[in-house]
Amino acid sequence: MKKFSIGIDLGGTKILIALVNKETGDVIHYVKKKTKKDKGPQNIIRKMVSGIEELLEESKFKPEDIDSIGVGAAGQVDRENGIIIGAPNLDCYDLNIREHLTSHFNLPVYLGNDVEIAAMGEMKFGAAKGCDDFVCVFVGTGVGSSIVKDGKIIHGATGTAGEIGHMIVDLNGRQCACGAHGCLEAYASRSAIEKRIEGALRKGRHSAILDYIETGKSISSSMIQKSIEREDELVIQCVNEAAEYLSGGLASIINFINPKLIILGGGLIEAVDYFYKTTIKKARAKCLPVPATKIEFKKAQLGDYSGVIGAAFLE
User: Is the domain of 294 the same as that of 165?
Assistant: First the structure.
């Protein structure tokens, strides 16, 4: 078996494509593409294909040097057939990733959920190394999670286990990108914070974040962090609200699954330490006393690379 694979992390705002050494977990080279304005199946395929071609050209590798291509997608997936069933943040439904990429590169193609592959990466080379009982939760454009028990990803009856972002936290609440109302993702994601800030700004609230916002661009996690550093009242209020909801979701996981460890990652967690610390403090306070004494929290250690590294091990 060749020791190099291509790992792809297909998220709501970016596609990260990397050449990974499977013996060491090292990322040899990577290419990043934005997805924010180019959603939809044809645009996604086009960007993935051009990204892989760019990666191979820049790294001087050829398809025959590669063992496989692994893709982690932000949504529900059919692993057996390599199909994205539904990814609302990408506007992709029933997209056969395997068919498209195999026809272009003549390589085995494997598909998983984006947080599933992040969990695999963290288990092999990151924060969960040596732990076989944990839950991985990533917070970015959306909120996703993966459950690991006895060292194996729990997929569930339909392969869609771990959708914490679509846990209902308010029966008559905000509409989520999935179409339902009251999902955790609609309250605790970066995009949820962005909507709350933008709504307040439209109503005339002042905020330091106005110094960083660019026309036509999203409010990024780094903008949120910079505003918190300036003790901006509006941004802190919106981040606290998101932490309140996310901590409730984590407390529910702790009470229901009783894992040893929860790993938190994603752009918002990485960039905004205040959000991370506030969330875990509130989660400990909200869960039952006995599991609260045992639960451990860690930040994902591999950063942006956790997904691509995990994807390289899909089979």
Answer: yes
* Nearest-angstrom CA–CA distance, 229 and 245: 22
Nearest to 271 by CA among 231, 220, 237: 220
CB 82 within 8 A of CB 109: yes
Asked whether the CA dihedral 266, 248, 188, 160 is positive or negative, the reply is: positive
Render the burial of 75-102: b for 16+ CB within 10 Å, e for the rest.
bbbbbeebbbbbbbbbbbeebbbbebbe
21: Cβ contacts below 8 Å, ≥ 6 apart: 3, 4, 28
182 in the same domain as 48 = no
Q: What is the pLDDT of residue 38?
A: 65
Can you give the pLDDT at residue 2? 77
- The answer to whether residues 158 and 273 belong to one domain is yes
Strand, helix or coil at 275? helix
* 149 and 230 both lie in a single domain: yes
109 with 186, same domain: the answer is no
Same domain as 176, residue 84: no
| SS3 of residue 273 by DSSP | helix
For residues 138 and 267, state if they share a domain.
yes
Other Cβ atoms less than 10 A from the Cβ of 274: the count is 16
What is this structure's pTM?
0.88
pLDDT given for residue 226 in this prediction? 97
- Tell me which DSSP letter residue 106 carries: -
Cβ pair 36, 218 in contact under 8 A:
yes
Compute and round to an integer the Cα radius of gyration of the chain. 19
Domain residues for the domain of 155 are 129-299
| Judgement on whether residues 134 and 86 belong to the same structural domain of the protein | no
In the chain (315 residues long), the average pLDDT of successive 10-residue segments reads 89 90 94 78 90 95 94 90 88 92 95 92 94 95 93 90 93 92 97 96 95 89 96 98 98 96 95 97 97 95 92 93
